[in-house]
Specification:
The complex is a heterodimer of chains A (318) and B (349). Chain A is an alpha/beta fold and 318 residues long. Helix content of chain A is 43%, strand content 12%. Chain B is of the alpha/beta class and 349 residues long. Chain B is 36% helix and 19% strand. The relative contact order of chain B is 0.13. Classes of the chains: A alpha/beta (318), B alpha/beta (349).
Chain lengths: 318, 349
C-alpha cells in the first residue's frame, strides 16, 4: 500500500496545484494560456512512476501534470506561471513550454505532435550510447492526426528504439471529437500492424495505468522494441482556460455521481480510506496544500526577469 | 607548403566529415538516401565504410520527424548532421526548424542546447524546375536561434562545415550544387572558418559587390571583364548569412562608394534588402549611388533553359549593373565566355 500513498501524493499535488491556478487565474497575474490537466492525473502519475530512474519524457502544452509528476516541485512551477525570474525557464517558457531536464522532463511543446520526434531522437541517443534509458513521448489523440506521429512511430519501429509512446486520449482535439476527425474506427487496430507492443486501457485508475506502463516498459527492454500505451480519460475543463465549457454544446456534461465514480483522485482516495489510511491521506493533503500555497505566494512575490534577459540565450555560448 | 593542395568543394566537405567523425564519436550523418550508391553527389563517400551504418544511415522519407530526431538526439548529447539533397525538401521540416530547433535553447532558459547541423544543397543544375532550385536563406536567416552559412570556396566548404559541427547551436549549411566541382586550395589538416565573418574574395577600389554563394562566381567573371575596362571590383563573399558581417561590407563601401548586392534568392522581402538597409544605416553619406539589388526573377523557377537563364542572375547582369552605376557605356559582351552548366566552373578564384 505505501506505493499507493506515494501515487496519491503525486496525484493530489497535481489536483491541488491546478485548483490553485484556477482560484487565482482570474486576477490575470498568470499571463500564460493554461491548458489544464484535470482528469489526467492518473496517466501522468501512473506512467511516470513506472519509468525507470533516469528516464526522459517529452510532453504537450497540457503538461502541468507531467511536470509535477516528474519533479514533485511547485516553486519553479508557479514562478514560471507568473513569468518570474525564479521560474523553471526564467519566465521565458510559461505554461506551454515547461521543462526540467534535471528531472528528466526534457521539453514540452504547443504545436501538436512536435515533441514526438524529439523523444524519438532522445531514444536514438540512448540506443546509440548503449544507455539503459527509456524515453516516453506523451501526446494527445489529436497528435495522432499529425504526420509527425506516424513518421515517428514508423521510425521507432524500424530502428527498434527504447521509446514509450503514451497517447492520452480524451477523444477531443481542441473541441472536435475523434469521430469527426477519423477516417477509421480504431487507432490501435492500425497501430497493431507496426512492430511494437500495444496496450490500451482506461486512464483514470492509477493502479491499472501503473501496471500497464510497467508491462509496456518491461517489453521495451525484453523485446527490444518500442511500446505504445493508449489511455482514455475525461478532460474536465475547456481546451484552454480554467473553466468548464459544457454550455458550448460540443459535449455532454456527465452526471455528478458518474463523474465522481470515474474521478482518478477520488477513486484512489476511497481505496486508501478502505485500507485504513485516513490519517496518512489527510496528512498528505495538508502538507501539499501548504506546499502549493507557499509556492504560489512565493511566486507572486518573486521578481520579474531583468530587461537584459530578453537578449540572453538566443544562442548558446554568447 | 602542404596548404597549396588543390581539391574540389565536394571533396572538401567529404574531408571535413571524415575528420570530424573520426575526432568525435557523437557525430552521425543521416538523411534521405545518404547511404545510397551516389552518396549525396559524392560528398558522403567512404563514410559508411569508415564509420558504419550506426553513424551514417539513410532514413525513411520523413523530413519532419527526422529533423525532430536530430533535435532530440542533440539535447540528449549527440551531434547529428541532417542532410537534405535539395533545400526545397527542407521545407517539410520547417515546422521543426522554426518551432522547435531554433527556439529550444532560449525557451529552456539555456538548459538545453541543440548542436545540430543541417546540410542542404541549393539550386541550379539545369532544368530542375521550381522544386529543385530554391535557396530560401532569406527565410532561414529570419529565424532567431538558427545560424546560416553559405560557403563559396572549397576552403570555406571545409572550414565552415567544421565550425558548424563544433558549434553548440543549430547551424544550417547551404551548399551550392554547381560549386561541388569547384577547385581550390584547402589545407589537409582540420581547421575552422569562423562563423559570422565575411571574406574579401577579390580586392578593388571602384565598386563593391557583396555576393552570396554562387553569385561570387558570377561576380568574379564580371570583375575580370571590368578589369579590362579599367574598373576594379571588390568582391565580398558573405559566407555567413546569420550572423552577418556587415562591418566588412560597410568598410568596403566606405572605400568604393558603390554597392551591388548579388543575392541568390528572390529580391522581394529578400536577404538583399537586409544588407541594403544595414549599409544605408551604417554608411549613407559614403554612397555615391543607390544600392542595387540583384537576385532571382520574381517567378517560380521555369524549367526550360532559355527562361531558366533569365531567371537566375549572371555575370552579365552584374556587368550591366556596374555600367549603370559608374555611368559607363554598354559594352559588347558577345565575345565573352560565361558560365554554363555544360562548361563547368572549376576555379580556383
Amino acid at each position: 500500500m505505501p506505493i499507493f500513498l506515494d501515487l496519491y501524493k503525486k496525484m493530489y499535488l497535481i489536483r491541488e496545484a491546478e485548483a490553485e491556478i484556477s482560484r487565482e487565474y482570474y486576477k490575470d497575474e498568470m499571463k500564460t494560456p493554461m491548458h489544464m490537466s484535470l482528469g489526467s492525473e492518473a496517466i501522468s502519475v501512473g506512467v511516470c512512476h513506472a519509468l525507470p530512474k533516469g528516464s526522459h519524457v517529452y510532453g504537450t502544452y497540457r503538461s502541468h501534470a507531467l511536470y509535477l509528476a516528474m519533479t514533485g516541485e511547485t516553486n519553479e512551477f508557479f514562478a514560471e506561471m507568473y513569468g518570474k525570474a525564479t521560474g523553471c525557464a526564467g519566465g521565458k517558457a510559461g505554461s506551454m513550454h515547461l521543462s526540467s531536464p534535471e528531472h528528466g522532463l526534457m521539453a514540452i511543446s504547443a504545436v501538436v505532435g512536435t515533441t514526438i520526434p524529439w523523444a524519438l531522437g532522445d531514444a536514438f541517443a540512448a540506443s546509440y550510447n548503449n544507455l539503459d534509458r527509456i524515453t516516453a513521448a506523451f501526446f494527445g489523440d489529436g497528435a495522432t492526426d499529425e504526420g509527425s506521429f506516424w513518421e515517428s512511430l514508423n521510425a521507432a519501429c524500424l530502428m527498434k528504439l527504447p521509446i514509450l509512446f503514451v497517447c492520452e486520449d480524451n477523444d477531443l482535439a481542441i473541441h472536435t471529437s475523434s469521430v469527426q476527425r477519423h477516417g477509421y474506427d480504431s487507432l490501435t487496430e492500425i497501430i497493431k500492424n507496426f512492430r511494437l507492443n500495444v496496450f490500451e486501457g482506461k486512464g483514470n485508475d492509477v493502479e491499472k495505468v501503473y501496471s500497464l506502463a510497467n508491462k509496456a516498459v518491461d517489453l521495451i527492454r525484453s523485446e527490444q522494441q518500442s511500446s505504445l500505451l493508449r489511455l482514455t480519460y475525461y478532460r474536465y475543463l475547456e481546451h484552454v482556460g480554467v473553466n468548464e465549457d459544457f454550455n458550448a454544446g460540443y459535449r455532454k456534461k456527465p452526471e455528478p455521481q458518474e463523474w465522481l465514480q470515474n474521478d482518478p483522485v477520488y477513486q484512489l482516495r476511497q481505496k486508501l480510506l478502505k485500507a485504513d489510511y485516513l490519517n496518512a491521506v489527510e496528512e498528505i493533503e495538508e502538507q501539499i496544500r501548504k506546499q502549493v500555497l507557499a509556492s504560489r505566494i512565493k511566486a507572486q512575490e518573486a521578481p520579474f526577469p531583468n530587461g537584459d534577459e530578453l537578449m540572453k540565450g538566443v544562442f548558446c555560448g554568447e | 607548403m602542404e596548404n597549396k593542395r588543390v581539391i574540389s568543394y565536394c571533396r572538401a566537405i567529404n574531408e571535413a566529415l571524415h575528420q570530424e567523425m573520426a575526432r568525435d564519436e557523437r557525430i552521425f550523418v543521416y538523411g534521405l538516401d545518404v547511404a545510397d550508391h551516389k552518396r549525396t553527389f559524392g560528398s558522403g563517400e567512404g563514410l559508411l565504410e569508415s564509420f558504419g551504418p550506426k553513424r551514417y544511415f539513410t532514413t525513411p522519407l520523413s523530413e519532419d520527424a527526422m529533423m525532430g530526431l536530430g533535435g532530440g538526439a542533440a539535447v540528449a548529447g549527440l551531434h547529428p548532421i541532417n542532410v537534405h539533397i535539395r533545400v526545397d525538401f527542407l521545407l517539410l521540416a520547417m515546422n521543426q526548424l522554426a518551432n522547435m530547433v531554433a527556439p529550444m535553447h532560449y525557451g529552456s532558459n539555456g538548459k538545453l542546447s541543440v548542436p545540430l547541423v543541417i546540410r542542404a544543397i541549393i539550386g541550379r543544375g539545369w532544368g530542375q524546375g521550381f522544386q529543385h532550385s530554391k535557396t530560401l536563406h532569406s527565410n532561414f536567416a529570419h529565424i532567431p536561434g538558427l545560424k546560416v552559412v553559405m560557403p563559396t570556396t572549397p576552403y570555406d566548404a571545409k572550414g565552415l562545415l567544421i565550425a558548424a559541427i563544433r558549434d553548440d547551436n543549430p547551424v544550417l549549411v547551404l551548399e551550392h550544387r554547381l560549386l561541388y566541382w569547384q577547385e581550390g586550395q584547402v589545407p589537409e589538416e582540420s581547421f575552422e572558418t569562423p562563423i559570422g565573418k565575411a571574406n574579401i574574395l577579390r580586392s578593388g577600389s571602384d565598386i563593391t559587390i557583396a555576393a552570396i554563394s554562387w553569385m561570387n562566381v558570377e561576380a568574379y567573371a564580371a570583375a575580370r571583364i571590368m578589369e579590362r575596362r579599367g574598373v576594379t571590383v571588390e568582391i565580398i563573399d558573405l559566407r555567413s548569412i546569420a550572423p552577418l558581417d556587415d562591418d566588412l561590407i560597410a568598410a568596403s563601401v566606405k572605400k568604393t562608394g558603390h554597392l551591388i548586392v548579388a543575392d541568390y534568392d528572390w529580391v522581394n522581402c529578400g536577404f538583399s534588402a537586409e544588407i541594403a538597409a544595414r549599409i544605408y544605416e551604417k554608411c549613407m553619406s559614403y554612397l555615391k549611388s543607390p544600392i542595387a539589388r540583384i537576385g532571382f526573377a520574381p517567378t517560380p523557377c521555369p524549367t526550360t533553359r532559355p527562361l531558366e537563364n533569365l531567371f537566375y542572375p549572371s555575370a552579365e547582369t552584374l556587368v550591366r549593373a556596374i555600367e549603370q552605376k559608374l555611368d559607363l557605356d554598354r559594352a559588347d559582351l558577345s565575345g565573352e565566355e560565361f558560365f554554363s552548366y555544360e562548361n563547368k566552373f572549376k576555379g580556383p578564384f
